[in-house]
Amino acid sequence: MAVPQELLDILVCPACKAPVQLTADGQGLKCAQCRRVYPIKDDIPVMLIDDAKVEAE
Amino acid sequence: MSKKHKETIQKQFTKTAEAFSTFAVRDTPEVLSEKVEFAKPQATDLALDVACGPGAFALALAPRVRLARGVDLTLEMLRRARAFQAEKQISNAAFTCGDAEQLPFPDGAFDLVSCQCSFHHMPKPQLVLREMIRVAKPEGRLLVIDPLAPESDPKYDLHNRIERLRDPSHTLSLRLTTFLRMFEQAGLEVVRQSLRRRARSFNHWMLRAGYNPGTKRYRETRKLLEDSMAGDRAGFSAQPQGDDIQIVHNEGMFLLGKKAGGRS
């Protein structure tokens, strides 16, 4: 997991602008509000609404 | 931006990522350095480069600021940016894949928000400008750099037709007067403005779009440009140069601030 912490700290969900948190498996960033999960590919967060999946909880 | 246009941009810049970032760098180190100086970077700045491509500007800015971030719609470009970052051993830069119309950053986060040579790809540049304003601090600065289209209508149309033939993801080069009106309407004031003539090789320009002289697209674009040369009907100031043609992009550089009491 090499996404710099300082970058994670400032990223928000592009849809609702709420903070995102690293998922348990370290493979995505989850919005606390709308539950979209944005993938991390090659250590690059992909913060595109069309590429996000909405998790059940 | 429509999903279709986003896909066109992603397709174009994934296809050309190697040419764009390896063979045919748009800006020489001197031009890049001139652009960095124009932005008046401060050592304490948090900077964001919107539509950063392979990261040349963000990485040139990084040594002059606290942290430089780049955001781009095309993942392949960001992979290149990361590789350049590793090569240059720059630790204070970070890259994110994101849409310029819906930036994944909170309000008022950055001291300097730049977007260079990308407005002409955007169907609604005013939406991008609004997002840049949103993520900039109230006292933050915006830097917009883009090639300018000629003011006269016939030249403007042919200029953009040639640009679009070369690169389908090119939407519209804007006039100087359009930029200034857009800044005014967005509640921005122009702090610094500079217009630069950037002479380029046509062959190099085509290579950067992914076309060498053997391709149909190269021949079609060259013919349209050559037909426009008498009387400079497309405003490229094109001049033959051996087997090549020298063209000129008039580049506008704008350093902007939010007007006191203006929209945030």
Walkthrough of the structure:
- The complex is a heterodimer of chains A (57) and B (264).
- Helix content of chain A is 11%, strand content 33%.
- Chain A has 1 helix and 5 strands, in the order αβββββ.
- In chain A, strands 1, 2, 3, 4 and 5 form a 5-stranded antiparallel sheet that branches.
- In chain A, strand 3 and strand 4 form a beta hairpin.
- Chain B has a domain at 3-147 and 172-197 and 251-258: Vaccinia Virus protein VP39 (Rossmann fold, 3-Layer(aba) Sandwich), CATH 3.40.50.150.
- Chain B has 10 helices and 8 strands.
- Chain B has helices at residues 3-15, 17-23, 29-38, 56-61, 75-88, 125-135, 153-166, 176-185, 202-208, 216-228; strands at residues 46-50, 67-72, 93-98, 110-116, 136-148, 188-201, 239-241, 244-258.
- The longest helix of chain B has 14 residues, at 75-88.
- In chain B, 44% of the residues are buried.
- Chain A binds chain B through residues 3-4, 6-7, 10-15, 17, 20, 38, 41-50, and chain B through 3, 6, 67, 69, 73, 75, 78-79, 82, 94-99, 102-107, 109.
